[in-house]
UniProtKB/TrEMBL annotation:
Gene3D superfamilies: Sugar-phosphate isomerase, RpiB/LacA/LacB
Species the sequence originates in: Eubacterium callanderi
GO molecular function (one): intramolecular oxidoreductase activity, interconverting aldoses and ketoses
Top-level taxon of the source organism: Bacteria
Keyword Isomerase: yes
Protein name, UniProt field: Ribose 5-phosphate isomerase B
Amino acid sequence: MRIAIDCDDAAFDFKDAIYEHLKSEGYDITDLKYSADHDCDYPDIAFNLAEKVADKTYDRGIIICGTGLGVAMMANKVPGAFAGTCHDTFAAERLAKSNDANIITMGARCIGVELGKMIVDAYMKSEFAGGGSTKKVERMRELEKTYMK
């Protein structure tokens, strides 16, 4: 599984800790560092990562900002990107198992690094479970096409 990670200026240290944690667990993870080469804020950072997940360059993405909310909103503007903000392990597990989301977002000003590691572990170890959620996920993807022109 190929993973992309990025953040805005509110979360550099947090992102670095998550990156190192996942790298040490053996994940194939790339730090996009979009803001290092671009004068930008979180909308551009989130959009860049979401495009790369939507086009299958990466299987999953992790975006971190102050709250995780703005980057989720922006990532969800990209067709094929399905992002959710998680600040606990149950939500992170359900993000994958029930919603088949390909991007998780977190807020560095909302949770600590150790909890962040547990959250990404729960997300990364979870796969879409199908079952009763299949119809709902298919409907999300169908409705998304309403605005894809």
